[in-house]
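Lecture notes, part 5. Sequence design as translation. It can be helpful to think of inverse folding as translation between two languages: the language of shapes and the language of residues. The source text, in structure tokens, appears below.
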């Protein structure tokens, strides 16, 4: 058995595809809206029997390797690595140098992660109280993280030195150029010392590795851990609380969501996704058992991130700072989420019980907690309940407007125009009707007036979605009628070879074009073409599998329409379909021939040549065609 076969044996295609997109059972297969083209009704199928996937909308399809390649946007060697890890199969050639540039980058980040992990218990001196006391590990524990969480998410520490990681990686044979490409070191602007002009990007920081969808470290987020006056941090530069890896081959900020490699199955299961801001929020929420979460790392979600989440769930629950909800970036994020078809909700207030006054946000009387991380530390139930009691985004805007201004005041009306109307205008018609009424009653605005404001906004912003980059506006490869017929015949024939073996259905292999005629003859001889080494047998086998699935799905549809479920009825339907397609394909081929002859006739006539023979051929085809009609 090859390693590829071994991996395929161990990983179920439905499980694998289902870990990326929400699948629904339909007959003997699973359906979903295609992740590779934009559509509203599902035409993407996964077959558990055949262990393949196929989309009728855009004609993409294949096995588990093909799926991972496409959805992750990677090449085969990397897909192989991901699936081998998932299957627990150890690949024979594991030398990182043989895994190309991306493989090398992953290896260097893995080494850096181990280095940071090893430093976590480093004592930081001088122990002068506050955050700088003791070790970074101690600090994390004080913030509420368990040892298990710290280990599971591979949190580490970058020491307060200029070249500790740099030298460590050099000793592991990673060059300065490679380290720079991976975003780990920075080239000094001051080039006085040509040989020493590199230094570590992360210094004196708690390191949160950032993982890709498959759980490989692709970047780091570093939180400051020492007094900003420290030499090694850099006295002249303004010290940011967080420093992140720059964009690299592996890390595109707009595509990665912190924690998704762990939370994707919980998001799928719950059908909803909670969005928090920071790594600590994510980790503490995870510990509190609210695990259908992602962290946006402080910025509004991008369209790409929303698309990834939309494959997994329909409901988005935003847990951002109440004060920030009205900001432009947040509003833009909400609009994008609505445009992707999410139901958007907002997490309720994080209110402390009076017994935990320590965590009250300063300046805000009344017991608001700063963020989900603090809420969980105070009491996990606060966070769990806040998520449970999330409000619809429109209700949230109504409430926050009423908190600031009295209903029916000029200010509340302005607020309503600014924040409520754009959101209501984005909703489905049914939801719109509901919320227009609620908005009218709560804000004391005439319902008619609300309706006209919504319509006004919609007409002004007709092109609002136009700027949004389309996933792939159904640029379906145009498939000709002839190709469609060929595919259907081959699919049915592969399922019921008896049809093409029976003399009644005698079918001429020359009706098919290119590889299809090879496949046809293969099925007819119950034997796949062995001499076609140039293409490889798998190419044919995979194509046959997909064509068979396509035919099965079609026949299943016919069967359902007629409520005929017995195998006999399906067989009869298949044979009828086979005969019809055979006749139609014959007609298509004849028409094609007639077209060629007709062109020839024209050119011979022009030259004044003899057209007798051509006319006879033309006539013969017409007779054959009329017999078929
Ligand atoms: Zn598709």
């Amino acid at each position: 058995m090859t390693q590829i076969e071994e991996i395929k044996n161990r990983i179920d295609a439905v499980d694998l595809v289902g870990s990326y997109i929400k699948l629904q059972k339909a007959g003997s297969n699973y359906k979903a809206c295609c992740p590779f083209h934009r559509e509203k009704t599902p035409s993407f199928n996964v077959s558990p029997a055949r262990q393949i996937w196929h989309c009728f909308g855009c004609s993409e399809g294949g096995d588990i390797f093909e799926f991972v390649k496409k959805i992750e946007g990677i090449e085969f060697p990397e897909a192989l690595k991901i699936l081998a890890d998932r299957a627990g199969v150890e690949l024979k050639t594991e030398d990182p140098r043989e895994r190309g540039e991306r493989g090398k980058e992953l290896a260097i980040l893995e080494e850096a992660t181990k280095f940071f992990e090893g430093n976590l218990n480093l004592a930081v001196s001088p122990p002068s109280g506050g955050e700088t006391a003791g070790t970074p590990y101690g600090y994390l524990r004080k913030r509420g993280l368990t040892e298990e969480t710290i280990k599971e998410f591979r949190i580490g520490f970058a020491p307060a030195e200029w070249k500790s990681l740099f030298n460590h990686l050099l000793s592991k044979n990673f060059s300065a150029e490679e380290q720079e490409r991976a975003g780990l070191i920075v080239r000094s602007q001051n080039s006085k010392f040509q040989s020493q002009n590199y230094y570590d990007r992360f210094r004196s920081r708690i390191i949160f590795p950032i993982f890709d969808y498959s759980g490989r470290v692709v970047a780091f987020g570093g939180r400051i851990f020492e007094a900003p006056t420290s030499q090694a941090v850099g006295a002249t530069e303004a010290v940011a609380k967080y420093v992140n890896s720059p964009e690299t081959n592996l890390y595109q900020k707009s595509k990665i969501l912190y924690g998704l490699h762990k939370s994707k199955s919980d998001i799928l299961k719950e059908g909803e996704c909670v969005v928090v801001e920071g790594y600590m929020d994510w980790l503490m929420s995870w510990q509190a058992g609210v695990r259908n979460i992602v962290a946006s790392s402080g910025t509004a979600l991008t369209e790409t991130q929303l698309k990834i989440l939309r494959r997994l769930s329909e409901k988005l629950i935003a847990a951002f700072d109440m004060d920030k909800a009205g900001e432009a970036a947040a509003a833009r994020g909400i609009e994008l989420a609505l445009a992707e078809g999410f139901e958007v909700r907002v997490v309720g207030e994080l209110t402390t019980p009076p017994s935990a006054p320590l965590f009250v946000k300063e300046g805000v009387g009344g017991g608001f907690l700063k963020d989900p991380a603090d809420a969980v530390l105070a009491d996990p139930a606060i966070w769990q309940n806040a998520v449970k009691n999330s409000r619809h985004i429109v209700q949230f805007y109504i409430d926050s407007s009423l908190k600031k201004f009295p209903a029916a005041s000029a200010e509340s009306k302005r607020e309503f125009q600014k924040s409520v109307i754009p959101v209501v205008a984005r909703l489905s018609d049914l939801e719109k009707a509901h919320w227009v009424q609620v908005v009218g009653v709560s804000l004391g605005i005439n319902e008619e007036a609300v309706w006209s404001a919504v319509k006004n906004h919609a007409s002004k912003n007709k092109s609002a979605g136009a700027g949004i980059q389309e996933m792939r506006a159904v640029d379906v490869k145009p498939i000709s009628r002839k190709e469609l017929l060929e595919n259907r015949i081959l699919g049915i024939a592969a399922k019921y070879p008896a049809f093409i073996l029976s003399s009644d259905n005698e079918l001429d292999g020359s009706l098919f074009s290119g590889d299809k005629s090879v496949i046809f003859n293969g099925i007819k001889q119950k034997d796949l073409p062995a001499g076609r080494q140039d293409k490889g047998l798998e190419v044919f086998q995979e194509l046959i599998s997909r064509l068979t699935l396509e035919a099965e799905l079609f026949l299943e549809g016919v069967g359902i329409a007629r409520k005929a479920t017995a195998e006999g009825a399906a067989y009869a339907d298949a044979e009828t379909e086979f005969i019809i397609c055979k006749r139609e394909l014959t007609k298509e081929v004849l028409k094609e021939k007639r077209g060629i002859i007709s062109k020839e006739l024209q050119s011979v006539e022009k030259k004044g040549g003899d057209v007798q023979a051509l006319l006879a051929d033309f006539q013969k085809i017409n007779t054959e065609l009329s017999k078929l009609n």
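The translated text above is only one of many valid answers, since several sequences can fold into similar shapes. The CA atoms of residues 425 and 454 lie 5 Å apart.
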